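We emphasize that the prediction below concerns an isolated chain of 107 residues; any contacts that depend on oligomerization or on bound cofactors are therefore not represented. The input was used exactly as deposited, without trimming of termini.
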Amino acid sequence: DGVFFRYDSTNANFICVTSKNSAQTTANSGIAGNTNWNRYDIEINAAGTSAEFSINSAVVGTITTNIPTAAGRETSIGHRISRTAAGGAAKTAFFDSYELYMLTGAR
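Result of the prediction step, given as a C-alpha cell string:
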C-alpha cells in the first residue's frame, strides 16, 4: 500500500502511483526523469478521496482511486532504489531533506 512517485527504465517520465490491496492506479506526470534537484509533493485531502501530486510546485497529476485509508493502512515516509537486472548500472540518489505533515482527525 502507498502513495508515491515512481521512475523506472520502462517510462521516460515520473509516474504518480496510488496502491491499495495490491491494486494500483497510475498517472503519467509528463515530467521526464532528470538529474536535477527536484521537490516532490503529495497532498491527500482530508476525506482521503484524492491524492494530488506536484513536482517543483506544479501539479502533475491527481488520482482518486486506490488510496489506502482503512484501519491498519498507516502512512510513513521513505525511499527505495532497485536494480531490475543483474549487472545493471549502479544507481545513486541524493536526498536533501524530508518533510512529512500529518493532520489528525476523523476521516
